[in-house]
């Protein structure tokens, strides 16, 4: 991430804006100490970015509020899609503990194959999806929540930043946070209870009456946002001098 050799060697035009763009978490970002005082703006998933670009968000529906919520027919219980398996990650540790009490169908590079290579088609068959982030940092809420779970009409069971951080982006009754339970056994018991109680289960989709999911498109939306920011702030002279401290906080 901090490879200075990739930066242009020619003299930098006086009014040219340089944007540091990164969508990995601090755990998977290195070399930032070499980038202090180089960039003018930041673009990332962090709320405090100069150009804030989340992995997704809930978008208000233009039509009238729907009184009913239609869900795909679901015969299966819990799904998880993972491509980077690391036994040291908190999500893998929790998976091994949780699977003792509830069956979990795992998809990914070394597990089951997605149905027709489609995330939505696969996960929509399940009542719950494990939206476990590969590391836990403020605002680091990725497509695992927005596309894999909400976009597939499965209730997300989240492992990431605290519940209060998730509630900045979506209603508190739209997801299940692992921190709300004293043990994986209690979490599994609650999931089984919801699966057998349709009225309570469907409450997790009340957000669908007023909102729809928007999953940010890489990279078209990012380029457009950068262009708009450059036009709007072409006379700004800011330089980011505390990049590592800001991003890792």
UniProtKB/TrEMBL annotation:
What reaction gets catalysed by this protein?
A: an alpha-Neu5Ac-(2->3)-beta-D-Gal-(1->4)-beta-D-GlcNAc-(1->3)-beta-D-Gal-(1->4)-beta-D-GlcNAc derivative + GDP-beta-L-fucose = an alpha-Neu5Ac-(2->3)-beta-D-Gal-(1->4)-beta-D-GlcNAc-(1->3)-beta-D-Gal-(1->4)-[alpha-L-Fuc-(1->3)]-beta-D-GlcNAc derivative + GDP + H(+); a beta-D-galactosyl-(1->4)-N-acetyl-beta-D-glucosaminyl derivative + GDP-beta-L-fucose = a beta-D-galactosyl-(1->4)-[alpha-L-fucosyl-(1->3)]-N-acetyl-beta-D-glucosaminyl derivative + GDP + H(+); an alpha-Neu5Ac-(2->3)-beta-D-Gal-(1->4)-beta-D-GlcNAc6S derivative + GDP-beta-L-fucose = an alpha-Neu5Ac-(2->3)-beta-D-Gal-(1->4)-[alpha-L-Fuc-(1->3)]-beta-D-GlcNAc6S derivative + GDP + H(+); an N-acetyl-alpha-neuraminyl-(2->3)-beta-D-galactosyl-(1->4)-N-acetyl-beta-D-glucosaminyl derivative + GDP-beta-L-fucose = an alpha-Neu5Ac-(2->3)-beta-D-Gal-(1->4)-[alpha-L-Fuc-(1->3)]-beta-D-GlcNAc derivative + GDP + H(+)
Identify the keywords attached in UniProt to this record, alphabetized: Glycoprotein, Glycosyltransferase, Golgi apparatus, Inflammatory response, Membrane, Signal-anchor, Transferase, Transmembrane, Transmembrane helix
Where the record annotates domain Fucosyltransferase C-terminal, the positions are: 72-246
What Gene3D superfamilies does the record point to?
Answer: Glycosyl transferase family 10, C-terminal domain (3.40.50.11660)
Q: From what organism does this protein derive?
A: Aldrovandia affinis
Q: Which InterPro entries match?
A: Glyco_tran_10_C, Glyco_tran_10_N, Glyco_trans_10, GT10-like_C_sf
Boundaries of each Fucosyltransferase N-terminal domain copy? Answer: 3-56
* Broad class of where this protein is predominantly found: Golgi
Please cite one Gene Ontology biological process associated with this protein. inflammatory response
Write out the annotated subcellular location.
Answer: Golgi apparatus membrane; Golgi apparatus, Golgi stack membrane
Q: What is its EC number?
A: 2.4.1.-
Q: Which family does it belong to?
A: Belongs to the glycosyltransferase 10 family.
Supply one GO molecular-function term: 4-galactosyl-N-acetylglucosaminide 3-alpha-L-fucosyltransferase activity
Q: What membrane topology does the UniProt entry give?
A: Single-pass type II membrane protein
- Pathway per the UniProt entry: Protein modification; protein glycosylation
What Gene Ontology terms describe where this protein resides (cellular component)?
Answer: Golgi cisterna membrane; Golgi membrane
Q: What is this protein called?
A: Fucosyltransferase
What function is annotated for this protein?
Catalyzes alpha(1->3) linkage of fucosyl moiety transferred from GDP-beta-L-fucose to N-acetyl glucosamine (GlcNAc) within type 2 lactosamine (LacNAc, Gal-beta(1->4)GlcNAc) glycan attached to N- or O-linked glycoproteins. Robustly fucosylates nonsialylated distal LacNAc unit of the polylactosamine chain to form Lewis X antigen (CD15), a glycan determinant known to mediate important cellular functions in development and immunity.
């Amino acid at each position: 991430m901090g490879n200075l050799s990739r930066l242009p060697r020619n003299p930098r035009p006086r009014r040219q804006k340089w944007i540091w763009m990164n969508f990995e978490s601090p755990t998977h970002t290195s070399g930032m100490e070499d980038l202090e005082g180089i960039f003018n703006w930041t673009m990332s998933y962090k709320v405090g970015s100069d150009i804030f670009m989340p992995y997704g968000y809930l978008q208000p529906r233009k039509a009238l509020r729907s009184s009913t919520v239609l869900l795909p027919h679901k015969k299966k219980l819990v799904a998880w899609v993972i491509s980077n398996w690391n036994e040291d990650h908190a999500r893998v540790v929790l998976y091994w503990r949780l699977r003792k009490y509830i069956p979990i169908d795992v998809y990914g590079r070394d597990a089951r194959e997605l149905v027709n290579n489609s995330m939505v088609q696969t996960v929509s068959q399940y009542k719950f999806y494990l939206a476990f982030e590969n590391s836990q940092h403020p605002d680091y809420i990725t497509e695992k929540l927005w596309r894999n779970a909400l976009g597939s009409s499965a209730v997300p069971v989240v492992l990431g930043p605290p519940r209060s951080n998730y509630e900045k982006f979506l209603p508190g009754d739209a997801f299940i946070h692992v921190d709300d339970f004293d043990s994986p056994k209690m979490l599994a018991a609650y999931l089984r209870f919801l699966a057998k109680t349709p009225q309570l289960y469907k409450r997790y989709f009340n957000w669908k009456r007023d909102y729809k999911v928007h999953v940010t498109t890489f990279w078209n939306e990012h380029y457009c946002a950068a262009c708009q920011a450059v036009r709007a702030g072409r006379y700004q002279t800011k330089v980011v001098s505390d990049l590592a401290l800001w991003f890792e906080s």
